Amino acid sequence: MKGFNDNLRQILFLGLIIFIGILMLKHFYVFLPGVLGAVTLYILSRQPYRYLTNQKRWSKGWTSLLFILGYTVIICLPVYLAAILLTPKLVALFNNPVQLMVAVQTFSDKVYEAIGVRILDPENLKTALERLANNIPALLSGTANFLTNLLLMFFVLYYMLSNGDRMERYSNNILPMKQENRDILGRETVMMIRANGIGIPLLAIIQGLVSMLGYFIFGITEYGVWAFLTGIASLVPIVGTGLIWVPLVIYLFTIGQTGNAIGLGIYSLVVTGNVDYFARITLLKKIGDVHPLITIFGVIIGLSMFGFIGLVFGPLLISYFILLVKIYRNEFSSTLPRESNNK
């Protein structure tokens, strides 16, 4: 009877912990990307941070601030460049909507004459611009949310770096699994975060730079802006970089630059479209490759859950789910063959 009462108390206590955890998560959900970002940056910084503080005897507090300063530059520089490149275009777009619609009409007419298909409609564009203008408050709110998560991420990262050893020991002790599986979980977590946190953005940068060379060669004006947009579009599932280079190829056809249009189309299909494959089998193999299907489905899930930052955390979430299934098989299944740890 005593054993039954102990089990009942344990179940009730565990239920209380789960209830409070769900309650906190429900109200803290909007700040979850900041916490996930801190965990990601902590794991990426773990080895160099320990080298500086343990072997070089640097101060933990100042070293943490140095890492945060470095990450601030790495994260904010692309945002700053995007603002410089895109803000003038957006301002001109909203200040001269009539001029834009005239240009769209001319472009649509030329495409219709060339291929017999009307791909753009000024009325639809006008409606899209009106919807975009109506969504500006939501965009500003999203920007404020992004900045809040950014500050939270650096705040949490500081304490994670300063107290990393103690935090890892505590996490290791509370995990309800065998030490063997705790070790697997730790190794695989580091590998997955490196693969997703470094690999996915690196692929976008590579495709953006490669596309910029093509845009420069085949006469696209403001090729830097289009390359930046191509890098972002490379993260979009299935269509990817085609969101940018296909309209540019069509545009070159309509203005009579047939040679450049054909050249850019071939270059984008053969080089830009396949450079990610070569990067995966060469450079990214050293970091920890991510299966393309995990990236595709992860981006879809991540965007709906976390917004733009979900481009990284979505694939990480799916990778972690697969890892936990593997841990479950090793921990509880006596009939299934054990996973080999030597990879």
Helix content bin: over 70%
Biggest sheet record = none
Quote the distance from N terminus to C terminus: 48 Å
Percent strand equals: under 5%
Structure description:
With 343 residues, the chain is an all-alpha fold. It folds into 2 domains: 31-166, no CATH class; 180-343. Helix content is 83%, strand content 0%. The protein is built from 15 helices and no strands. The chain has helices at 2-28, 32-55, 60-95, 97-115, 122-134, 136-162, 164-174, 179-217, 223-233, 242-254, 258-272, 275-281, 283-287, 292-306, 310-332. The longest helix is centred in the middle third of the chain and has 39 residues, at 179-217. Residues 338-343 have low confidence and may be disordered.
Structure in a nutshell:
This protein has 343 residues and is mostly helical.
Write a concise keyword list for the protein shown above.
343 residues; single chain; mainly alpha
Helix-strand blueprint:
Elements: H1 2-28, H2 32-55, H3 60-95, H4 97-115, H5 122-134, H6 136-162, H7 164-174, H8 179-217, H9 223-233, H10 242-254, H11 258-272, H12 275-281, H13 283-287, H14 292-306, H15 310-332
